[in-house]
Amino acid sequence: MMSEELKKIFLAGLGAVAITAEKSKQIVDELVKKGELTLEQGKQLNEELKHDACDKIKKHVTVNVTHEWDGAGISEAISKMTSEELANLKADIARREKALQEPEVESDGED
Prior knowledge:
Layout: H1 2-34, H2 39-60, H3 71-79, H4 83-101
């Protein structure tokens, strides 16, 4: 199914970011240990690296999820709804049914 493949791709990207952040933290920690950076500089550099990684992901990653609904999928989704969500869905369906039953009235341009 397409959504499963997208989920796997998304999780792989997320894992890559986590590994990158972890490796950058290790490098910063080593530099601090060697005395090449102060502890405060190391913390700041690590935060900047995390922020940069998040910005790059936001800039270059777009996730579009589409659903191919079948009867079973719709039934499963409805079964997980709260009473309020179900009531809202029923009201929305009623509005759409009413709109479909009403003949379209063309505007004569006078408003």
